[in-house]
UniProtKB/TrEMBL annotation:
Keywords: Membrane, Transmembrane, Transmembrane helix. This is Uncharacterized protein. The chain crosses the membrane at residues 12-31, 51-69, 81-111, 131-150.
Length: 167
C-alpha cells in the first residue's frame, strides 16, 4: 500500500507528538528520581519532578511512535496505536485540567473564607506547575491528530472488503 497524503500527515504529526511525549516522560521521571535523592525546589523549564507522570507520558509517547513507524510503511492496523495514544493523551490532559480547576475552586473557597486572593494556583498547584504542565498543552496539540486519525479510520472501515470470491 502506498502512503497517501492523509497517512503521511498522521505519520509526521504522530512522530512529533511521540518524540515530545517520550522526551517529556524521560525528563519527568529523571527529575522525579533526582528529587528522591535530593529535594529539588525549582524544576527546569516547568517540567515537574513526577516519576509516575513521567512514566505515563513515556507510555503515551511510545504508543504514538509505535503507531507512526508501521504506518509509514503502509500498515493501516497501526492507526489503532495512534488512537490509543490520543485517548491516553486526552485522559491525562483532562485529569490535569481538572486538578487545576480544583486548585482554583480551593482558592475561591479560601477567598470566601476571608483569605486574600492569589493567582498562584494557576502556576503552582497540586499538579506541580499547574496550568503550565506540559501534558495539558500536549493534549491540546493532539486534538487535530485525533480528528485526522479517527476520520481516516472510519474511511478505512467503510471500504468494502475484498473477500476473494467470484460472485
Amino acid at each position: 500500500m502506498k502512503l497517501d497524503i492523509k497517512n503521511g500527515q498522521i505519520v509526521v504529526y504522530s512522530a512529533i507528538l511521540g518524540a515530545a511525549y517520550t522526551a517529556l516522560g524521560v525528563a519527568e521521571s529523571a527529575l522525579g528520581m533526582l528529587n528522591l535523592l535530593s529535594p529539588i525546589t525549582d524544576t527546569p523549564a516547568g517540567v515537574p519532578a513526577d516519576i509516575l507522570g513521567g512514566f505515563a507520558a513515556l507510555v503515551i509517547g511510545l504508543a504514538y511512535l509505535r503507531g507512526a513507524i508501521p504506518l509509514s510503511r503502509g500498515s493501516r492496523e497501526s492507526l489503532g496505536y495512534i488512537l490509543v495514544g490520543t485517548f491516553l493523551s486526552a485522559i491525562f490532559g483532562i485529569l490535569y485540567l481538572l486538578i487545576v480547576c480544583a486548585d482554583g475552586l480551593g482558592a475561591l473557597l479560601a477567598l470566601l473564607e476571608g483569605e486574600e486572593w492569589t493567582w498562584e494556583w494557576l502556576t503552582k498547584g497540586s499538579a506541580g506547575p499547574g496550568l503550565l504542565r506540559p501534558e495539558i498543552w500536549l493534549f491540546f496539540a493532539s486534538l487535530p491528530l485525533a480528528y485526522l486519525t479517527w476520520k481516516n479510520t472510519k474511511k478505512i472501515i467503510q471500504q468494502p472488503k475484498n473477500t476473494g470470491s467470484y460472485e
